[in-house]
Amino acid sequence: MSTDAIVVLKEDHKEMRRLFRAFQDAQDGLASQRQKLVGQILEALTVHTCLENEVMYPEVRKLLPDLEDDILESYEEHHVADLLCAELATMDADDDHFNAKTTVLIENVEHHVEEEEQEWFPKVREALGRKQLQEIGERMLALRADAPRSPTAPKAIKKALDAVTA
């Protein structure tokens, strides 16, 4: 497995897209299946957001000040996703708003991922060397084991709040 930070994040994006498709395919299915899929989505997003907020964004912000606006926008997009995740974590799949709220979350995350992959990652790759990206990726992989798994975990809430005020 590559330790390149961008490769690590793209692998996470790939897994999220897979989970999103599975949810979309199950929208008319059993509530228990939708609940399980949303639980997996929330865990994947919580871990991924932690890695970006704690390692990737601060490091790029420090090394590439020209990308400040992109990073601040990303923090705000994470904040919106964090709020939706926290709400979904407390909802039951039988709730009238469950599918709609999950769909809005998916749309927001897909927009964020597309911006990162099409606009932001190429700028970062061009400006940072392979060694720097590998070091950042290694730090993200080391953090993954201790990252919060639920958007309602105290550690996740604190990290979400810290990211907004960063």
UniProtKB/TrEMBL annotation:
Annotated coiled-coil segments of the chain: none
Residues covered by the Hemerythrin-like domain: 5-124
Pfam families in the record: Hemerythrin (PF01814)
Entry-linked InterPro entries: Hemerythrin-like (IPR012312)
Protein name: Hemerythrin
Species for this entry: Micromonospora haikouensis
